[in-house]
DNA sequence: CCACACCTGATTTTT
DNA sequence: TCAGGTGTGG
């Protein structure tokens, strides 16, 4: 028997050894799913399957990377680099890069992230003269996204009776039109959003039999991770790709399906068995991760859900400690408690920082934990903030790069046409947009042909300068690599200089970020590693497409010795020695947005199941009596999920952390509290009297803040006030201002298209006056 | 044209 | 709280 089969249990081995034909692996939490997948790939290759014929799809880059590394490790050679392992989005994007032109897109199509996409939605809504209060871009975008994920085209959408009824009821009958306009605009921009990467690939396969056949032959063996989280578009693609060989292996756990809001449907699991004649089903039910207590608790939680694939997770691990349930007074106390407990556990049980994870329902909760950890100097890493590539300054530079790769990309163009300012303001941009729309050309084409559209001479000059500059960048593309182009662009546009001159903390940070971006591009250009084994594409276009699909999780080192903070969603697939499940409160978890239907509530419960099963050894469940929600203090009920945990697995008396803490929280389960349905009788006022006001009081009461009265001493302009010509304003001249009265010009500054004068007024101090707009009269 | 002050309205989870 | 939108004054 091959080495790699050692250490697999009966079921796992069964899953690995089944080579031909469809197989579905129902893998409970911590049952060695990744091990099975990677070993299976290794086994396929050991059995003579060419790495080039294996496609493995995951949901995150992290999972893809891990899978690849583990296969490499098992095989001990570099054949693994020929595997096609990646996320749905990145793999499809790569394929589309070769064939997108067949659908009328440029192969260098831009990938719009969520922000770009929402911005397009907004543009479309405005151009249709619809009320953006009624049609909120975010909501509309979500709806469009849902439609795309369900393979509902704009035409389908408009013709579907039920959808139309729904939109009517929601008072947004124009949605179908917006959807259509949005798609057309993206197409015109030569851009695809995240959903398009799936949808357009699907269209490609469906429309062009030669391509379908090509990829069916290439991908003789297909493996799908986290199958419970696939949406109908992904399902349809997998089905088409796998139709020829039927060597499709899906791995999933219906109990961990937590992405239905993104269009994922459990139906895909149930449907899988119907799609093929003979599906082998393997259940992995032995958990190797957690203690018995944790597993038992998790099982009883998930049993509250109706309709699931029957299975019972079990473990041979020690029974372990009970789950600590802890109540704190406030969200800040929750943070303190957790930080103190981490400190204590590190000392007492010799845990490292990286053994801890604080997991929560919403990103907004992270602040209290950050503050508390920082106070104790405990290093931490937050996941789920904005990615490096989504920072403003980074997106600005990237927008230039995007534009020179794809001049149709209007989102990029709009972003940088006047940044840094070059005298092409809102009025001009609006005019350009109008011209583009009426002539049915792109904004760039308007700019290129600006002379024939009658712009004011100054504006025209600014436009021509801009066009010349961008064209000079474009001409670099053939001769220079991505780094050289990016560096040149940063320099030439003064973007780097602008940030360099900004001496504020943020300015410095931004400058450093730009440098970091340039470095990373350089690194990317120089790294010999290729992704999936084929010809290395080191063009700027390839770079841009790749980074849009990166999340902040991909930029952080998971092995760093830091406490990890992230949402439960982001923690899927991970495990930690010690887990804090925080914020177990009604309206927060289960979230207020998800308590209206049984389906939603069950998904929240699965989320609870996921967080419980992340823990290997120790699990704390915390909840706070009061919490700041969008600025104001609210009181909370404990989560119903806590009540669903059998008492036998719980320890409600845990006092935890340092002694200092004991005064600032009441440990969850005094008999009185429990008798009274959970909460003590403290009012918020009581709480504040006892424990002091909550921290982070940045706002001083209005009656204390000294109002800086900007007393302008009244001035009546001399009769017959006439503003002098700008050229007459010179240093040393005595001038009169309509409002500020008389003063002397001290200094001239500002760019030539926007001159400013620094003037010291007799009664109103020094002021900067913009000569183009303010009226000044030179006193003779 | 642009900087800044003020106001308002929104808040789930993410490739 | 906070980001984005609007209004105002330079």
From TrEMBL:
Belongs to the helicase family. UvrD subfamily. Transmembrane segments: none annotated. Residues 685-720 are annotated as: Disordered. Residues 292-573 form the UvrD-like helicase C-terminal domain. It catalyses: Couples ATP hydrolysis with the unwinding of duplex DNA by translocating in the 3'-5' direction; ATP + H2O = ADP + phosphate + H(+). PANTHER family: ATP-DEPENDENT DNA HELICASE SRS2, UVRD / RECB / PCRA DNA HELICASE FAMILY MEMBER. ATP binds at residues 27-34. Pfam families: PcrA_UvrD_tudor, UvrD-helicase, UvrD_C. The keyword Nucleotide-binding applies. This is DNA 3'-5' helicase. Keywords: ATP-binding, DNA-binding, Helicase, Hydrolase, Isomerase, Nucleotide-binding. Its EC number is 5.6.2.4. It comes from Niabella digestorum. Residues 6-291 form the UvrD-like helicase ATP-binding domain. The keyword ATP-binding applies.
């Amino acid at each position: 028997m091959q080495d790699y089969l050692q250490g697999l249990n009966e079921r796992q081995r069964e899953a690995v050894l089944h080579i031909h034909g469809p197989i579905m692996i129902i893998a409970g939490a911590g049952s060695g799913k990744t091990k099975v997948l990677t070993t299976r790939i290794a086994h396929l290759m050991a059995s003579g399957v060419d790495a080039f014929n294996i496609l493995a799809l995951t949901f995150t880059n992290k999972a893809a990377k891990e899978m690849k590394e583990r296969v490499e490790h098992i095989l001990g050679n570099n054949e693994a680099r020929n595997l096609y392992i990646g996320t749905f989005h990145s793999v499809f994007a790569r394929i589309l890069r070769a064939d997108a032109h067949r659908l009328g897109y440029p192969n260098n199509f831009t990938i719009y992230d969520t922000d770009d996409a929402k911005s397009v939605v907004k543009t479309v809504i405005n151009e249709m003269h619809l009320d953006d209060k009624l049609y909120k871009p975010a909501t509309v975008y979500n709806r469009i996204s849902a439609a795309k994920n369900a393979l509902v085209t704009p035409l389908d959408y408009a013709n579907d009776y039920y959808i139309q009824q729904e939109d009517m009821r929601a008072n947004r009958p124009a949605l179908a039109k917006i959807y259509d306009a949005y798609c057309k605009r993206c197409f015109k921009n030569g851009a695809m959003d995240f959903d398009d990467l799936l949808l357009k690939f699907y269209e490609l396969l469906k429309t062009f039999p030669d391509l379908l056949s090509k990829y069916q032959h290439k991908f003789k063996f297909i493996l799908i991770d986290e199958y419970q989280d696939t949406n109908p578009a992904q399902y349809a693609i997998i089905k088409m790709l796998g139709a020829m060989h039927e060597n499709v292996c899906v791995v999933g756990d219906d109990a961990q399906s937590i992405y239905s809001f993104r269009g994922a449907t459990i139906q895909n699991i149930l449907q899988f068995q119907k799609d093929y004649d003979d599906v082998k089903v393997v259940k992995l039910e032995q958990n190797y991760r957690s203690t018995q207590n944790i597993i038992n608790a998790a099982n009883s939680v998930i049993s509250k859900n109706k309709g699931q694939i029957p299975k019972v997770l079990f473990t041979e691990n020690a029974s372990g400690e009970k789950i600590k349930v802890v109540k704190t007074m406030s969200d800040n106390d929750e943070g303190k408690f957790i930080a103190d407990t981490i400190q204590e556990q590190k000392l007492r049980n010799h845990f490292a920082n990286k053994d801890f994870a604080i997991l929560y329902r919403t990103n907004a909760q992270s602040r209290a934990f950050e503050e508390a950890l920082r106070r104790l100097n405990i290093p931490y890493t937050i996941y789920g903030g904005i990615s490096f590539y989504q920072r403003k300054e980074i997106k600005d530079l990237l927008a230039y790069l995007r534009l020179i790769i794809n001049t149709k990309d209007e989102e990029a163009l709009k972003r940088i046409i006047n940044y840094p300012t070059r005298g092409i303001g809102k009025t001009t941009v609006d005019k350009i947009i109008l011209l583009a729309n009426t002539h049915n050309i792109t904004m760039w084409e308007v700019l290129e042909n600006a002379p024939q559209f009658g712009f004011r001479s100054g504006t025209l000059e600014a436009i021509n300068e801009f066009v010349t500059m961008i064209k000079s960048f474009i001409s670099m593309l053939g001769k220079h690599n991505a780094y050289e182009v990016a560096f040149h662009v940063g320099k030439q546009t003064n973007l780097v200089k602008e940030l360099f001159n900004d001496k504020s903390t943020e300015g410095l940070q931004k400058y450093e970020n730009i440098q970091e971006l340039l470095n990373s591009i350089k690194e990317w250009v120089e790294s010999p590693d290729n992704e999936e084994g084929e010809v290395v594409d080191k063009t700027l276009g390839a770079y841009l497409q790749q980074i849009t699909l990166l999340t902040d999780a991909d930029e952080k080192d998971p092995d760093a010795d830091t406490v990890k903070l992230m949402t439960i969603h982001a923690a899927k697939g991970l495990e930690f020695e010690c887990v804090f499940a925080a914020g177990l409160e009604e309206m927060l978890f289960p979230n207020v947005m998800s308590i209206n239907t049984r389906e939603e509530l069950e998904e929240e419960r699965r989320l609870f199941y996921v967080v419980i099963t992340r823990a290997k050894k120790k699990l704390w469940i915390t909840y706070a009596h009061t919490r700041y929600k969008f600025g104001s203090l609210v009181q909370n009920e404990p989560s119903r999920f806590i009540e669903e945990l059998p008492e036998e697995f719980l320890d409600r008396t845990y006092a935890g952390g340092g002694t200092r803490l004991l005064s600032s929280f009441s440990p969850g389960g005094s008999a009185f509290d429990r008798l009274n349905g959970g909460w003590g009788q403290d009012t918020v006022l009581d709480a504040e009297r006892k424990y002091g006001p909550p921290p982070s009081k940045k706002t001083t009461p209005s009656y204390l803040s000294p109002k800086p009265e900007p007393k302008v001493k009244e001035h009546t302009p001399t009769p017959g006030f006439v503003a002098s010509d700008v050229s007459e304003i010179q240093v040393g001249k005595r001038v009169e201002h309509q409002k500020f009265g008389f003063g002397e010009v001290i200094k001239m500054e500002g760019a030539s298209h926007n001159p400013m004068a620094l003037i010291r007024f007799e009664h109103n101090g020094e002021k900067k006056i913009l000569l183009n707009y303010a009226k000044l009269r030179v006193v003779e």
